[in-house]
Amino acid sequence: MIFETRDQAEARTRLRELRVAGVDGAAIRIETLCGRSALPTAYRLSRFVTDAGRQSPHSGY
Question: pTM to 2 decimals?
Fold first, then answer.
């Protein structure tokens, strides 16, 4: 996971920043975790991992 927030606009801004930084858009997973009364909706950006045992060369992205 790269980033998680309850603010949809903040998630969009962070996604744009990742793309500007050169992160391949096809490698980014965008999730909307639907909220309920006890848990609000959250937006999560994560990076696809093809080999879980391998460290990403872009730690933090």
Answer: 0.69
